[in-house]
Amino acid sequence: TDDVISITSRELTSGWNFISVTENALGKSLNSLKGNCDIQKAYYYLEGYQELNLNLELPTDMSSQGLLIKVSNNCKFGGSSVNPPAIPN
Questions:
Q1: How many angstroms separate the Cα of 52 from the Cα of each of 29, 73, 81, 86?
Q2: DSSP 5-62
Q3: What is the spatial distance between Cα 15 and Cα 22, in angstroms, rounded to a whole number?
Q4: What is the Cα gyration radius of the chain?
Q5: Is the pLDDT of residue 4 over 80?
Q6: Comparing 21 with 61, which gets the higher pLDDT?
Q7: Exposed/middle/buried for residue 70 (C-beta within 10 Å: 0-12, 13-18, 19+)
Q8: Helix residue spans in 1-89 (DSSP H)
């Protein structure tokens, strides 16, 4: 695809999701990026699928690579679903 969606603003659906690692995620852990998602499992591919420790930082050489993430419900990865307050009149 020509449209690259930042890892910090992804909508995930319940179950398995393929997402690409973008530059702004490097050096951060999935736990710090998960937003309001309940991550059940996460994998990356390096000579076979490897389970990803959610607390470890994503290495800098993972740019443009993919992750396979299983979440329990539809959610917003990298952000939250909290609405901003209304603008006063």
A1: 10, 20, 25, 39
A2: PPGGGEEE-SEEEEEEPPGGGTTSBHHHH-TT--EEEEEEESSSEEEPPTTSBPPGGG
A3: 21
A4: 14
A5: no
A6: 21
A7: middle
A8: 30-33
Cα 51 to Cα 71: distance, rounded to the nearest angstrom:
14
> What DSSP character marks residue 29?
B
3-class DSSP state for residue 85?
Answer: coil
State the Cα–Cα distance between residues 23 and 5, nearest whole angstrom: 11
Distance, in Å, from the CA atom of 3 to the CA atom of 26, rounded to the nearest integer, reads 19
Q: Do 71 and 17 form a contact (C-beta atoms < 8 A)?
A: yes
- In this prediction, residue 12 has a pLDDT band, given cuts at 50, 70 and 90, of very high
Q: 52, 34 in Cβ contact below 8 A?
A: no
